[in-house]
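2024-03-11 09:14:02 DEBUG pipeline.ingest accepted 1 chain
2024-03-11 09:14:02 DEBUG pipeline.ingest length=339
2024-03-11 09:14:03 DEBUG pipeline.predict start
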Amino acid sequence: MPPPEVPLKKLGFLTIGLFDPADPARGHQSTLEIIELGERLGFDSAWVRHRHLQHGISSPVAVLAAASQRTSRIELGTAVIPLGWENPLRLAEDLATVDLLSGGRLNPGISVGPPMHWDEVKDALYPDTADEEDFSYERLERLLRFVRGERATDFSGLEGIEVYSDQVQPQAPGLAGRLWYGGASLRSAQWAGEHGMNFLTSSVVRAEESEDFAEIQLSHVRAFRQRHPAGQAARVSQGLVVIPTDSASPAQREKYQQYALARTPRTASPQGPARIVFARDIVGSSEQIAELLYAHSAFREIDEVAFALPFSFEHEDYVQILIDLATRVGPALGWRAAG
């Protein structure tokens, strides 16, 4: 295993928060317990996915509001909120509120584009304005303006006994600097850099100039930093699926290997009209994982990660994986636990 040239600065994890529709409260409580465990283990960040009309977290901002009251240090992120489902002004209010409740720990990740299964959901989501909705980057620019405190309306002042502001309220100092764009294309990476956002990469990219996952992701990281005012200091987080087996039971190891094996065929070539390229899940001991990551050209250019937890595992599996990530994989990458 090659020695790390630059120690990993930030170690995080990402969970989808699946639940049994017959007992959704238990699944949400499990997610909160996992976030609490992450803080105790010294993780720098915990991130939740966003799923609509599925048995996963549909309201990550609400979940993170709850998590903010059960933790005190760990950063709390969304990866990512699809903005096509949201009103930018209302979302800005919610994000600022939760950021204040968390003491300035919220890291909202956002993406743009039409909602998935648009033809099936548009009548329920936008029954009167579906043909007029703008799902371009302009929708995100509106959110950025509101979070940064630019004017939202021409009206302000006193009306009777009520005071109105021309800014979204509340305002959360520092939140604008903790906004992330989740992108899978070169244009997304460039746009995020040009607009001074942080950049979330994941295990999914688009095959544009190459079909090699690491090569594509590396080009995104470099394009983002070339366009960002902070240059090489601009924040990028990588979100591969990483499953350590150091303390796993034989049954868990078999489950993990079968999970990765079932998902491997999709990594062989670009998938679908969008030519999506998936990264292989990384399963093995901490030493094996570290060696594979140091061989990954994109990983070598970042210093923070949010490793994705598998979708369909049990609570006890996530506990084992988090413990191994914090106590074995992180140290093997030069990381030191927070707190």
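2024-03-11 09:14:41 DEBUG pipeline.report Residues 78 and 183 are 13 Å apart (CA to CA).
2024-03-11 09:14:41 DEBUG pipeline.predict end
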